[in-house]
Design brief:
The chain is an alpha/beta fold. It folds into two domains: 12-64 and 342-438, Aspartate Aminotransferase, domain 1, CATH 3.90.1150.10; 71-339, Type I PLP-dependent aspartate aminotransferase-like (Major domain) (Aspartate Aminotransferase, domain 2, 3-Layer(aba) Sandwich), CATH 3.40.640.10. Helices cover 37% and strands 16% of the residues. The chain has helices at residues 12-19, 57-60, 69-81, 93-105, 120-138, 157-162, 194-211, 235-247, 300-304, 325-340, 343-361, 391-402, 424-438; strands spanning 36-40, 43-46, 51-54, 112-117, 144-148, 179-182, 215-220, 224-225, 231-232, 252-255, 279-282, 294-299, 367-373, 376-381, 405-406, 413-416. Strands 4-12-11-10-7-5-6 form a seven-stranded mixed sheet, with helices on both faces. A four-stranded mixed sheet has the order 1-2-3-15. It has a three-stranded antiparallel sheet with strand order 13-14-16, covered by helices on one side. Strand 8 (224-225) and strand 9 (231-232) form a beta hairpin. Helix 3 (69-81) packs antiparallel against helix 10, helix 4 (93-105) runs parallel beside helix 10 and helix 7 runs parallel beside helix 8. The structure holds pyridoxal-5'-phosphate.
Length: 439
């Protein structure tokens, strides 16, 4: 590397362009960046004072709105009390209290353990390693994981392997391990896909007849596959699928990194099924969207399979910032906010408001497959190319940005997943802008 140039650029975006490599970004296309300087409630403001409605909760993390004083206070108090200590061989009140409260929220007190990490990918990576090693510890190693087609579970190598059928990771094919991608019968408003569900469950049953003995686990994004295109499946399909794996004694992982903390209308998505997963991955909204933190909740049966007299059976996984006390304090304050703001009631209100708009959009000739669950609304742009880098969604997002609405389409899939503090008027504004841009 050479030393720095004496003529450094002065604007924020120019300085960024000279120094930063952004995630999921093709820098060669030279697309403009939004220089964001402030955020309050559901609104982001750029350096020129222009405002944007954050209709995607800043990559699905923000729950209660930006700039919440309750979260700021909790973070500040915790930094001064205990900022950090390594979590191997030490413990602290925020981590223990958060574990207690999450287990209580999940209805798992006394039945499961909380393993901490930093982000959604590591929550998944931990779950995959736990499921894998539990077979090793039992003396009957298994390596093969079943996933749902089109799944996305994060960007570490294990998480990419779980999501390899999404097509996001073709460049890494040589690094990834083998998985089996199961069919997923998609549903949308007015299309229950009963036939598709029956066919998918039959196909999966046939696979289990021959492969059950070699499967180490099943991983699913319950009810909504997020980054793969906000693809919905029914609670009935999910319950039936997971029941088949449970019958075979194969651990089931629910990746609730996106769906957790009320997004689908219940506090956790699995609460809309008949099924209690063996492992649950949580991140994104866990701190209300202000600090990186993740947990993997594991059943006591899995935890017990790691017990022994020497280290060889222990879970060899951990991160420098595991269970960071400040992030845990933010998460505890976020749980308080869920209660004081009645967050699930807010999601129900957002759902009613978005339902009215989607009903109107459903008959629009340029829109198809409208879908809505909890506080997540989505539709496809009819007759346009799909795929992450397809242009139609991006063009719409650019036009909306001009009108102060921030969206980040997935190819030709337009979705809205706003923070729970958003008002009905703000939702109206976003949908009216969408309609005017679509024409
Ligand atoms: C379902 C799901 N799992 C895992 C991840 C990865 O989370 P992170 O980006 O925090 O690593 C994501 C991110 O979008 C996700 O939607």
């Amino acid at each position: 590397m050479k030393g720095s140039s004496p003529d450094l650029p002065s604007s924020l975006t120019a300085r960024d362009t000279a120094t930063i490599w952004h995630p999921f970004t093709q820098h060669g296309l030279g697309r403009p960046l939004l220089p964001i300087t402030e955020a309050k409630g559901s609104t982001l403001r750029d350096e020129t004072g222009r405002e944007y409605l954050d209709m995607i909760s800043s990559w699905w993390v923000n729950l209660h709105g930006h700039g919440r004083p309750e979260l700021a206070q909790a973070v500040s108090d915790q930094v001064l009390r205990l900022d950090h200590v390594q979590f191997a061989g030490a413990t602290h009140e925020p981590a223990v209290m958060l574990a207690e409260r999450l287990l209580e929220k999940a209805g798992l007190t006394g039945a499961a353990r909380v393993f901490y990490s930093d982000n959604g990918s590591t929550a998944v990576e931990s779950a995959v390693k736990i499921a894998h090693q539990h077979w090793v510890n039992r003396g009957t190693p298994r390596h093969l994981f079943a996933t749902l087609r089109g799944a996305y579970h994060g960007d570490t190598v294990g998480a990419m392997s779980m999501g390899r059928s999404s097509g996001f990771f073709d460049a890494f094919g040589g690094l990834l391990f083998e998985t089996v991608a199961l069919p997923v019968p998609l549903v949308w408003n007015g299309f229950a896909n009963v036939e598709g569900e029956r066919a998918a469950l039959d196909e999966i049953a046939r696979l289990l007849e021959t492969e059950a003995h070699s499967l180490a686990g099943l991983i699913v994004e319950p009810l909504v596959q997020g980054a793969g295109g906000m693809r919905f499946h029914s609670a009935h399909f999910l319950s039936a699928l997971c029941g088949m794996f449970r019958e075979q004694g194969i651990p089931v992982i629910f990746d609730e990194v996106m769906t957790g903390f009320g997004r689908t209308g219940s506090f956790f998505a699995y609460q809309q099924t008949e099924f209690l997963p063996d492992l649950i991955c949580l991140s994104k909204g866990i701190t209300g969207g202000i600090m990186p933190l993740a947990v993997t909740i594991a059943s006591n049966d899995l935890f017990d399979s790691f017990l022994g007299n020497d280290f060889s059976r222990a879970l060899a996984h951990g991160h420098s910032y595991t269970a960071n006390p400040v992030a845990c304090a933010a998460s505890l304050a976020s749980l308080d906010l869920h209660e004081s703001t009645a967050s699930l009631d807010q999601v129900a209100r957002i759902n009613r408001c978005m339902a009215r708009h989607l009903d109107l959009l459903a008959s629009h000739p340029k829109i198809e497959k409208t879908r809505l669950l909890g506080g997540i609304a989505a539709f496809d742009l009819a007759g346009t190319d799909s795929g992450y880098s397809a242009g139609a969604g991006r063009e719409l997002a650019s036009a909306l940005q001009e009108q102060g609405i921030l969206l980040r389409p997935l190819g030709n899939v337009i979705y809205l997943i706003p923070p729970y503090c958003i008002t009905d008027e703000e939702i109206d504004r976003a949908f009216n802008a969408i309609l005017s841009c679509i024409g």
